[in-house]
Amino acid sequence: MIKSVLQAIPTYVMSIYLLPDSLINDIERMINTFWWGGGNNNKGIRWLAWDKMACPKEDGGLGFRDFQMFNMAMVAKQGWNLINKPNSLVARIFKARWCIGDGSNIKVMGEPWLREEDGRWVTSPQIQEKEANMILAVPLLHMVEEDKLIWSEESNGIYSVRSGYRKLMEEKRLMNRPRERDGWGSLWKIQAPPKVKHLYWRICKECLPTRTRLRNRHVHCPIECPLCQADPEE
Q1: Contact present, 126 and 134 (Cβ < 8 Å)
Q2: Residues 188, 200 contacting (CB under 8 angstroms)
Q3: One digit per residue, pLDDT tens: the chain, 234 residues?
Q4: Which of 80, 99, 168, 173 is the most buried (most CB within 10 A)?
Q5: Which residues pair with 97 in a beta bridge?
Q6: Biggest alpha carbon distance in the chain?
Q7: Measured between alpha carbons, how far is 29 from 127 in angstroms, rounded to an integer?
């Protein structure tokens, strides 16, 4: 329900506006509370922060959407002009390339438009012998067309929200924390009902409401195991 309904509700607005961080935090907080069963008073315990749940299952999350990154990916679909602002976060992620037409729109010394033999892009080419030979090797078109931007993350060169979101999440992961791929992918491939997989995930993430953890969350309850009545329920 979260992925098919709750995450889809703000999609239209996110495709037009960059939402304030406070609003995005409120949306994520409400969905997080709903997931952990907060009830009508929203006073349930959120056992795990949203940013740890809004990452791929292979990285230890639940594959929920990071609304801030998704918002940026949606706006970028109609905001290719942001690529012309190289100091913005979106510009650093969306590394658009030029497809040569008549050459009138390209800043040849500052924008990537030339490829090496192995397909890599040459950044800010300096006119030396190597670059000069590469320029001479660029095939001429039968018809002169205008230069156009292409999106290097898609084979057809057209930007998509999916590839933009994937690129943003990859950049965020590299900046914030190391990849956490210690068998999480195998967890979701086991032959078991979804409820069992989620239970196993909660156990691995230490998100089960045991009495010891409830005490740590300032919930007044007996700490002894209800079965043996001797040791604490960890």
Answers
A1: no
A2: no
A3: 566 677 778 888 888 788 888 988 888 888 888 877 755 555 667 777 888 888 877 877 888 888 888 888 888 887 665 655 556 665 666 556 666 666 667 776 767 677 776 767 676 555 677 777 777 677 766 666 667 778 888 888 888 888 888 888 888 877 766 555 567 778 888 888 888 888 888 888 877 777 777 777 677 777 777 777 777 766
A4: 168
A5: 150
A6: 85
A7: 53
Alpha helices in 56-99 (DSSP H): 67-77, 89-93
| Measured distance CA(15)–CA(13) in Å, rounded | 5
Residue type, 28: E
Q: How far apart are CA 233 and CA 18, in angstroms?
A: 46
- Identity of residue 154: E
Q: Provide CB contacts within 8 A for 42, sequence distance 6+.
A: 30, 33
